């Protein structure tokens, strides 16, 4: 991949850095030998200019607002595929034929139940625990319940762990929700498709069978697809770094869930809806736009801006269309929150501050409106993001583990602390 080089002159010494050429996107300066040859580090906190790995899974073009899973544009997958088919694509690299899809569907469906002891695991949490807290705990504990799929050096165990995680995350997320609202858990129903099964596990109660609306199930499935993977974002990088130490896949995914929880990342969908509800009405939008622009005010428009997208987040476009559809299905003609969201987007995109900083709505801006209309509390928004992203995390983890050149991730630092000094006796301080 290196047919060009860049030459760095360091104190009179020329160091040749190979230039790696990608399929798409910016070239990469290969600096792996820089410290050995030049005795210097590069400095890039936040990794704004750093490629941490090579990958064949997902491509994003932030300037064009493009997102491809294994080369297929997200708009086409959103319109024509299904989440489980996207799971197959992300995991194995190609779209499945009918037999492959049927086999994969059966394998996932047959792993949707969790170990019965896990039901007791939940009872250790307070009922008001955030569902993300229970998910981090329960998913991290999966290695204790499925020790036969923790050997990362066995491809078969890696495969089973991947299927188990994709299959069981919806069950665990639904259990986290049921536990938080004091309702009994529902078992998975293998007669239902992936999204319908999740909705049923969340909303069915013993006293009244939940009738899955196929149109809502389709919208749920679409939300899963839109969140499935996204290149080397913070939580995926967390999963890769945890995996590089040889940690078992369940521990790595739990680390990814923990990282996703932050409001700057996957927690933004909960924060965005809470922000829209706090704004409350269109006439209060200018006040919040002013707060977002005020350097001295830590307030940010949640669901706006992105490290990579400096154009529209293609997922936000699909999500915005879906919001209209879902509210229509539910007969919610007037939704003040959606009205505020659309007006906030319109005003922000005409404001120089947002235009200059290229801040557009991201995947988290509209998703909360849909999920709330479906009946989910805001505390379930990030768990739904986490269950959707599990296939992306595990696909990236598998890719990293299978890399023969793989090594433990271990960044260095720019040390700006105290120089060497001797211990000062207490009497002399
Ligand atoms: C996700 O990485 C991924 O791919 C993530 C994700 C995925 O699928 O995995 O896409 C999912 O996490 C989407 C992002 C969700 N987060 C939010 O919506 C939270 C609000 N957004 C911001 O916190 C921010 O935009 C980030 C964290 C998303 C991106 O931050 P960056 O790239 O580090 O940009 P920055 O903080 O350096 O901001 C650049 C400028 C700053 O102003 P200056 O210091 O240059 O004057 O833009 C401003 C920021 O103050 N800015 C905002 C803003 N976002 C950035 N100002 C107001 N409101 C905002 N939302």
Structural notes for this entry:
The chain is 50% helix and 7% strand. With 429 residues, the protein is mainly α. The longest helix is centred in the middle third of the chain and has 26 residues, at 155-180. The model has no long low-confidence stretch (mean pLDDT 95). A 3-stranded antiparallel sheet has the order 1-2-3. The protein has a 3-stranded antiparallel sheet with strand order 4-5-6. It has helices at 34-38, 74-80, 83-92, 98-109, 117-122, 131-145, 155-180, 194-203, 214-226, 234-244, 249-260, 268-279, 285-293, 314-329, 336-348, 352-356, 363-374, 381-401; strands at 2-10, 13-20, 28-29, 58-61, 66-69, 72-73. Bound molecules: s-citryldethia Coenzyme A. S-citryldethia Coenzyme A binds at residues 230, 233, 264-266, 268, 292, 300-308, 357, 359, 362-364.
Give the SSE layout.
Layout: E1 2-10, E2 13-20, E3 28-29, H1 34-38, E4 58-61, E5 66-69, E6 72-73, H2 74-80, H3 83-92, H4 98-109, H5 117-122, H6 131-145, H7 155-180, H8 194-203, H9 214-226, H10 234-244, H11 249-260, H12 268-279, H13 285-293, H14 314-329, H15 336-348, H16 352-356, H17 363-374, H18 381-401
Antiparallel strand pairs: 1-2, 2-3, 4-5, 5-6
Helix pairs in contact: 3-9, 3-18, 6-7, 6-11, 7-8, 7-18, 8-9, 9-14, 9-17, 9-18, 10-11, 10-18, 11-18, 12-15, 12-17, 14-17
S-citryldethia Coenzyme A binds at residues 230, 233, 264-266, 268, 292, 300-308, 357, 359, 362-364.
